[in-house]
Amino acid sequence: MDPLVRFRDAHSKGLIPDDIYDLTIKRFPIVVAGINRIEKASGIQYPVAYVEPSLVLSSSNSNSYEYGILFARTIPVMFEEKFQVVIQITAPLIAYGLKGTIHAILAHEFLHFLELVRKISKMELISDEISGNLFENVYSDETRLFEPKAVFKDRLLLEHITKKFPAGFRDYKLEDKTIKFWADRNLPKSNISLDANNVKLSVESLSKIKFDSKFISKIEHLEEKSSKINKKKL
Known about the structure:
By secondary structure, the protein is α/β, with parallel strands linked by helices.
Protein backbone atom coordinates (compact mmCIF):
# COMPACT_ATOMS: atom_id res chain seq x y z
CA MET A 1 0.00 0.00 0.00
CA ASP A 2 1.31 3.43 -1.00
CA PRO A 3 0.98 5.52 2.19
CA LEU A 4 0.59 8.68 0.10
CA VAL A 5 -2.15 7.46 -2.25
CA ARG A 6 -5.01 9.33 -0.54
CA PHE A 7 -2.91 12.47 -0.19
CA ARG A 8 -1.92 12.43 -3.86
CA ASP A 9 -5.52 11.81 -4.85
CA ALA A 10 -6.70 14.81 -2.81
CA HIS A 11 -4.07 16.98 -4.51
CA SER A 12 -5.09 15.80 -7.98
CA LYS A 13 -8.68 16.77 -7.17
CA GLY A 14 -7.59 20.27 -6.18
CA LEU A 15 -8.32 19.81 -2.48
CA ILE A 16 -4.68 20.23 -1.45
CA PRO A 17 -2.83 23.29 -2.86
CA ASP A 18 0.54 22.86 -4.53
CA ASP A 19 2.57 24.49 -1.75
CA ILE A 20 1.14 22.20 0.94
CA TYR A 21 1.52 19.18 -1.32
CA ASP A 22 5.16 19.95 -2.10
CA LEU A 23 5.98 20.63 1.56
CA THR A 24 4.37 17.40 2.77
CA ILE A 25 6.02 15.28 0.08
CA LYS A 26 9.38 16.91 0.83
CA ARG A 27 9.05 16.15 4.56
CA PHE A 28 7.56 12.66 4.22
CA PRO A 29 11.02 11.02 4.50
CA ILE A 30 10.95 12.14 8.16
CA VAL A 31 8.02 9.76 8.65
CA VAL A 32 9.80 6.93 6.83
CA ALA A 33 12.91 7.50 8.94
CA GLY A 34 10.76 7.51 12.09
CA ILE A 35 9.11 4.21 11.22
CA ASN A 36 12.48 2.64 10.42
CA ARG A 37 13.85 4.00 13.68
CA ILE A 38 10.97 2.54 15.70
CA GLU A 39 11.32 -0.86 14.01
CA LYS A 40 15.05 -0.89 14.74
CA ALA A 41 14.57 0.24 18.35
CA SER A 42 11.82 -2.30 19.07
CA GLY A 43 12.59 -5.22 16.79
CA ILE A 44 8.93 -5.22 15.71
CA GLN A 45 7.47 -4.31 12.32
CA TYR A 46 5.44 -1.10 12.26
CA PRO A 47 1.80 -1.55 11.23
CA VAL A 48 0.41 -0.25 7.93
CA ALA A 49 0.38 3.56 7.88
CA TYR A 50 -1.09 6.14 5.53
CA VAL A 51 -1.24 9.93 5.20
CA GLU A 52 -4.67 11.45 5.85
CA PRO A 53 -5.16 14.53 3.61
CA SER A 54 -7.17 16.44 6.18
CA LEU A 55 -7.05 18.05 9.59
CA VAL A 56 -8.74 15.60 11.97
CA LEU A 57 -10.76 17.29 14.70
CA SER A 58 -12.42 15.63 17.65
CA SER A 59 -15.97 16.70 18.42
CA SER A 60 -15.39 16.21 22.14
CA ASN A 61 -13.17 18.01 24.63
CA SER A 62 -12.28 14.79 26.40
CA ASN A 63 -9.42 13.69 24.19
CA SER A 64 -5.75 13.05 24.75
CA TYR A 65 -4.61 16.01 22.66
CA GLU A 66 -6.94 18.36 24.58
CA TYR A 67 -7.15 20.89 21.75
CA GLY A 68 -9.43 18.76 19.65
CA ILE A 69 -6.78 18.12 17.00
CA LEU A 70 -5.76 14.52 16.44
CA PHE A 71 -2.44 14.47 14.60
CA ALA A 72 -2.40 10.68 14.35
CA ARG A 73 -4.69 7.79 15.23
CA THR A 74 -4.46 4.04 15.67
CA ILE A 75 -7.39 2.50 13.82
CA PRO A 76 -8.42 -1.17 14.07
CA VAL A 77 -10.27 -2.33 10.96
CA MET A 78 -11.91 -5.48 9.64
CA PHE A 79 -11.32 -5.94 5.91
CA GLU A 80 -12.60 -9.01 4.09
CA GLU A 81 -12.99 -10.74 7.45
CA LYS A 82 -9.36 -10.04 8.31
CA PHE A 83 -8.26 -7.90 11.24
CA GLN A 84 -5.71 -5.17 10.68
CA VAL A 85 -4.38 -2.17 12.56
CA VAL A 86 -3.77 0.98 10.53
CA ILE A 87 -1.92 4.09 11.68
CA GLN A 88 -3.43 7.29 10.31
CA ILE A 89 -0.88 10.12 10.07
CA THR A 90 -2.33 13.51 9.22
CA ALA A 91 -0.75 15.75 6.59
CA PRO A 92 -0.55 18.78 8.95
CA LEU A 93 1.67 16.78 11.31
CA ILE A 94 4.07 15.97 8.49
CA ALA A 95 4.02 19.49 7.05
CA TYR A 96 4.49 21.42 10.30
CA GLY A 97 5.80 19.05 12.97
CA LEU A 98 9.40 18.99 14.11
CA LYS A 99 11.30 15.77 13.48
CA GLY A 100 11.31 14.90 17.19
CA THR A 101 7.58 15.54 17.46
CA ILE A 102 6.75 13.38 14.44
CA HIS A 103 8.90 10.52 15.72
CA ALA A 104 7.42 10.78 19.22
CA ILE A 105 3.86 10.62 17.88
CA LEU A 106 4.71 7.68 15.62
CA ALA A 107 6.21 5.90 18.62
CA HIS A 108 3.18 6.70 20.78
CA GLU A 109 0.86 5.22 18.16
CA PHE A 110 3.09 2.16 18.03
CA LEU A 111 2.56 1.68 21.78
CA HIS A 112 -1.20 1.85 21.20
CA PHE A 113 -0.83 -0.79 18.50
CA LEU A 114 1.04 -3.11 20.88
CA GLU A 115 -1.58 -2.60 23.58
CA LEU A 116 -4.39 -3.38 21.17
CA VAL A 117 -2.70 -6.61 20.05
CA ARG A 118 -2.06 -7.57 23.68
CA LYS A 119 -5.70 -7.08 24.61
CA ILE A 120 -7.03 -9.03 21.64
CA SER A 121 -4.57 -11.88 22.10
CA LYS A 122 -5.70 -12.24 25.72
CA MET A 123 -9.37 -11.76 24.89
CA GLU A 124 -9.48 -8.75 27.21
CA LEU A 125 -11.09 -6.49 24.64
CA ILE A 126 -14.86 -6.44 24.38
CA SER A 127 -16.47 -5.33 21.14
CA ASP A 128 -17.58 -1.93 22.45
CA GLU A 129 -13.98 -1.03 23.27
CA ILE A 130 -12.68 -1.42 19.74
CA SER A 131 -12.95 2.12 18.51
CA GLY A 132 -11.29 4.00 15.70
CA ASN A 133 -10.58 6.77 18.15
CA LEU A 134 -8.50 4.89 20.66
CA PHE A 135 -7.21 7.95 22.48
CA GLU A 136 -10.65 8.71 23.86
CA ASN A 137 -11.69 5.13 24.38
CA VAL A 138 -9.44 2.17 25.06
CA TYR A 139 -6.38 4.21 25.91
CA SER A 140 -7.81 7.02 27.99
CA ASP A 141 -5.80 5.59 30.87
CA GLU A 142 -2.12 6.28 30.21
CA THR A 143 -1.07 3.51 32.60
CA ARG A 144 -2.36 0.94 30.15
CA LEU A 145 0.34 1.77 27.66
CA PHE A 146 3.47 -0.29 27.43
CA GLU A 147 6.36 1.42 29.16
CA PRO A 148 8.44 3.11 26.38
CA LYS A 149 11.71 2.11 28.09
CA ALA A 150 10.67 -1.53 27.85
CA VAL A 151 9.93 -1.28 24.14
CA PHE A 152 12.50 1.07 22.59
CA LYS A 153 16.27 0.79 22.68
CA ASP A 154 16.85 4.36 21.52
CA ARG A 155 17.70 6.95 24.17
CA LEU A 156 16.97 10.01 22.02
CA LEU A 157 13.62 8.59 20.91
CA LEU A 158 12.73 7.96 24.55
CA GLU A 159 13.60 11.57 25.36
CA HIS A 160 11.29 12.77 22.59
CA ILE A 161 8.43 10.62 23.90
CA THR A 162 8.95 11.76 27.50
CA LYS A 163 9.14 15.41 26.45
CA LYS A 164 6.09 15.34 24.18
CA PHE A 165 3.90 13.05 26.27
CA PRO A 166 4.42 13.90 29.96
CA ALA A 167 0.66 13.63 30.52
CA GLY A 168 -1.00 14.05 27.16
CA PHE A 169 0.38 15.59 24.00
CA ARG A 170 1.84 19.11 24.10
CA ASP A 171 3.18 21.07 21.14
CA TYR A 172 1.84 24.61 20.97
CA LYS A 173 3.94 25.61 17.95
CA LEU A 174 2.59 22.70 15.92
CA GLU A 175 -0.92 23.58 17.03
CA ASP A 176 -0.50 27.24 16.03
CA LYS A 177 1.01 26.42 12.64
CA THR A 178 -1.75 23.93 11.90
CA ILE A 179 -4.44 26.48 12.67
CA LYS A 180 -2.71 29.30 10.76
CA PHE A 181 -1.56 27.44 7.66
CA TRP A 182 -4.25 24.75 7.39
CA ALA A 183 -7.46 25.53 9.28
CA ASP A 184 -7.49 29.27 8.51
CA ARG A 185 -7.00 28.50 4.81
CA ASN A 186 -10.10 26.29 4.89
CA LEU A 187 -8.20 23.21 3.79
CA PRO A 188 -9.87 19.80 4.24
CA LYS A 189 -11.08 18.94 7.74
CA SER A 190 -12.52 15.73 9.17
CA ASN A 191 -14.71 15.85 12.25
CA ILE A 192 -15.03 12.69 14.29
CA SER A 193 -17.03 11.78 17.37
CA LEU A 194 -15.90 9.61 20.25
CA ASP A 195 -17.51 6.53 18.77
CA ALA A 196 -16.29 7.17 15.23
CA ASN A 197 -15.18 4.22 13.16
CA ASN A 198 -16.32 1.65 15.69
CA VAL A 199 -15.53 -1.89 14.70
CA LYS A 200 -18.10 -4.20 16.23
CA LEU A 201 -16.67 -7.63 16.90
CA SER A 202 -18.30 -10.51 18.67
CA VAL A 203 -16.43 -12.75 21.08
CA GLU A 204 -16.47 -15.36 18.34
CA SER A 205 -14.87 -12.95 15.87
CA LEU A 206 -12.24 -11.93 18.39
CA SER A 207 -11.39 -15.56 19.02
CA LYS A 208 -10.73 -16.07 15.30
CA ILE A 209 -8.10 -13.34 15.14
CA LYS A 210 -4.72 -15.02 14.99
CA PHE A 211 -1.30 -13.49 15.50
CA ASP A 212 2.14 -14.94 14.88
CA SER A 213 3.24 -16.88 17.96
CA LYS A 214 6.69 -15.25 17.96
CA PHE A 215 5.03 -11.82 17.88
CA ILE A 216 2.80 -12.68 20.84
CA SER A 217 5.81 -14.00 22.76
CA LYS A 218 7.55 -10.68 22.11
CA ILE A 219 4.46 -8.80 23.34
CA GLU A 220 4.37 -10.89 26.53
CA HIS A 221 8.06 -10.23 27.13
CA LEU A 222 7.55 -6.48 26.72
CA GLU A 223 4.56 -6.63 29.05
CA GLU A 224 6.71 -8.26 31.75
CA LYS A 225 9.43 -5.64 31.30
CA SER A 226 6.85 -2.84 31.47
CA SER A 227 5.37 -4.29 34.64
CA LYS A 228 8.78 -4.41 36.34
CA ILE A 229 9.57 -0.82 35.33
CA ASN A 230 6.19 0.43 36.56
CA LYS A 231 6.64 -1.35 39.91
CA LYS A 232 9.95 0.42 40.40
CA LYS A 233 8.15 3.75 39.96
CA LEU A 234 5.83 3.02 42.88
